[in-house]
Amino acid sequence: MSHAAAFPLAQAPTGAVAARATDLSKVYGQGETRVTALDSVSVEFRRGEFTAIMGPSGSGKSTLMHCLAGLDSVSSGSARIGDVELASLGDRQLTRLRRDRIGFVFQAFNLLPTLTALENITLPMDIAGRKPDKQWLDMVVDTVGLSGRLAHRPSQLSGGQQQRVAVARALAARPEIIFADEPTGNLDSRSGAELLGFLHESVRALRQTIVMVTHDPVAASYADRVIFLADGRIVDEMREPTADAVLDRMKRFDAKGRTS
């Protein structure tokens, strides 16, 4: 599948790592209720790259994202944003890092109904006492196609437009990395395709780094690479994915699960 660029191709920094997991394990419960969600996972996410994480239900894909984003602690191993080891941070430091260096886009839009689209976009920076870079903010708003909707409240926007606001909010603070957890889950196919196009363009035009958890092969085809998890381990990786190739790979996992 080809996704035409609406912006000039941006030159992303090469070799730099935005996030990294090293021998990362996450265990829930003890004894008979013990569940190993992640089993010694090592993976890097490079700056200026769009990565999709896929796997069967219960494979650990959302757990990996949550550990890398500092939303959940690790049982052993290491999770880093840039050169910062998350386990070394206190609660206040971790909150500051998530606010200043990480962007989040979730399936739920998480917009405040009393605020306009623009106020929702700038809210994290307002809370942090920082003024947005107007030139960057204008570029982000233009990229996600919200220029004519900034004065509207969420109730006056479609689902696709609300999710665009959520994406613009994540981009506006110029984070080092954006984590997106099933961002098209509440959208129809047309709105979902538009949103994925915006995410794709934010990597190309704005040099953003995105890690997206998804179960949808079509969504994964917008990424530069796909990482596949099964039973808490990385079992495969695909570069320049197509929807058909991803679907074929997922079918193999399903068949293996039925015969094991």
TrEMBL record:
<dbReference type="InterPro" id="IPR017871">
    <property type="entry name" value="ABC_transporter-like_CS"/>
</dbReference>
<dbReference type="InterPro" id="IPR027417">
    <property type="entry name" value="P-loop_NTPase"/>
</dbReference>
<dbReference type="InterPro" id="IPR003593">
    <property type="entry name" value="AAA+_ATPase"/>
</dbReference>
<dbReference type="GO" id="GO:0005524">
    <property type="term" value="F:ATP binding"/>
</dbReference>
<feature type="domain" description="ABC transporter">
    <location>
        <begin position="19"/>
        <end position="256"/>
    </location>
</feature>
<keyword id="KW-0547">Nucleotide-binding</keyword>
<dbReference type="GO" id="GO:0022857">
    <property type="term" value="F:transmembrane transporter activity"/>
</dbReference>
<keyword id="KW-0813">Transport</keyword>
<dbReference type="GO" id="GO:0005886">
    <property type="term" value="C:plasma membrane"/>
</dbReference>
<dbReference type="InterPro" id="IPR003439">
    <property type="entry name" value="ABC_transporter-like_ATP-bd"/>
</dbReference>
<protein>
    <submittedName>
        <fullName>Peptide ABC transporter ATP-binding protein</fullName>
    </submittedName>
</protein>
<dbReference type="GO" id="GO:0098796">
    <property type="term" value="C:membrane protein complex"/>
</dbReference>
<dbReference type="InterPro" id="IPR017911">
    <property type="entry name" value="MacB-like_ATP-bd"/>
</dbReference>
<dbReference type="InterPro" id="IPR015854">
    <property type="entry name" value="ABC_transpr_LolD-like"/>
</dbReference>
<dbReference type="Pfam" id="PF00005">
    <property type="entry name" value="ABC_tran"/>
</dbReference>
<dbReference type="GO" id="GO:0016887">
    <property type="term" value="F:ATP hydrolysis activity"/>
</dbReference>
<keyword id="KW-0067">ATP-binding</keyword>
